[in-house]
Design brief:
Layout lengths: L11 H17 L4 E10 L3 E7 L8 E8 L4 E3 L8 E6 L3 E10 L5
Antiparallel strand pairs: 1-6, 2-5, 3-6, 4-5
């Protein structure tokens, strides 16, 4: 996540409020770890379609944001590797998702 440059905020009250919001967001963020946002569009059914993710590591998690269209998507997690994710779709579908690996202090 990009760090806010709070030094540019002249109003002291607003600066403090933004610092508190940033601190809280950083503590509560569900996106701890390394993530990439992707949008996948298919026009037909696809089986074991490989999609490059450019993360440099094998992702373990998907946070799907939306699925629009007549088709559905299946995330083939066991086929994810350091280069590609692997999906199967049942027809035309557009999917938006975060791909990556959730990390916390217990991992």
């Amino acid at each position: 996540m990009k760090k806010l440059d709070l030094g540019l905020v002249e109003d002291e009250i607003v600066r403090e409020y933004l610092r508190e919001l940033e601190d809280e967001f950083n503590r509560q963020s569900i996106l701890k770890g390394k993530w990439r946002f992707i949008e996948i569009q298919t026009t037909q059914a696809e089986t074991n379609k490989k999609i490059p993710h450019n993360l440099g590591f094998q992702p373990k998690d998907v946070i799907q944001m939306s699925e629009v269209g007549a088709g559905t998507i299946t995330w083939n997690y066991s086929s994810f590797d350091k280069t590609n994710i692997d999906i199967t779709t049942t027809g035309a579908v557009t999917v938006r998702a975060f791909i990556g690996t959730y990390e916390n202090n217990n991992n």
